[in-house]
Design goal:
mainly alpha; 9 helices
Length: about 210
């Protein structure tokens, strides 16, 4: 009950003081990654449509009328393709790492079980694998290294697919625990030696007030 009353006594000012620059940056990093990737794709598409007048590249099959991103990225705009892939994946991986750090510090819903921490680690691991695949497939283009390009394309797809699976699995477990009846009391009773957090997370305030009254 001491821990519970600690959550209840927090004021809105105290809650606002727990916000850090990393908390705000964690929201910006995915947006930056999305904007950079969208700009890269639009740049390649507009270049192929307007500047080259829908050129038929050597890497395209004879019956292929629409160029793939890899086909356009293997030509003159290869530096743009590599740069876009590197920036996008780096900011995306930083987002995953920031999410894990904020949960560890209590700024987001914390990972309290070993299973949730393992899923979070696997999310980051496979995101890094997908990052390596995307960067390497942009370097080893489909025109000069078709076999290596296909291998790294598969690595990229598998990495981010499994990363998405694990992060959805983690959120599913977090949701079950968060929306279970009286999660604070259950967590306090099952973790008697858990140290008092330095900065309480936002999401527990309303639940603590309900339990207090």
């Amino acid at each position: 009950m001491l821990r519970l009353s600690y959550w209840v006594c927090l004021s809105p000012i105290e809650l606002q003081s727990t916000t850090t620059p990393l908390t705000h940056c964690s929201k910006v990093f995915p947006i930056i990654a999305g904007i950079v990737w969208l700009a890269t794709l639009l740049g390649l598409l507009l270049y192929w449509t307007i500047d080259t007048n829908r050129q038929h590249y050597s890497s395209m099959s004879p019956t292929q009328n629409i160029a793939y991103i890899s086909d356009v990225g293997a030509s003159t705009l290869k530096p743009l393709f590599i740069t876009g892939c590197v920036i996008t994946t780096i900011f995306l991986d930083i987002s995953f790492g920031g999410d894990r750090w904020l949960r560890h510090r209590g700024r987001l819903v914390p990972n309290t079980s070993a299973g949730e921490k393992v899923l979070s680690a696997l999310t980051i691991l496979f995101a890094v694998i997908g990052t390596v695949g995307l960067i390497l497939l942009s370097i080893f283009d489909t025109a000069r290294h078709p076999r290596l390009h296909d291998i790294f394309l598969l690595l990229f797809i598998v990495g981010y697919v499994f990363s998405a699976i694990f992060i959805c699995w983690e959120y599913q477990r977090l949701g079950i625990r968060l929306f279970s009846p009286f999660p604070l009391i259950k967590h306090t009773l099952t973790s008697p030696r858990l140290p008092r957090p330095q900065h309480p997370p936002y999401f527990l305030l309303d639940q603590a007030r309900l339990c207090h009254y």
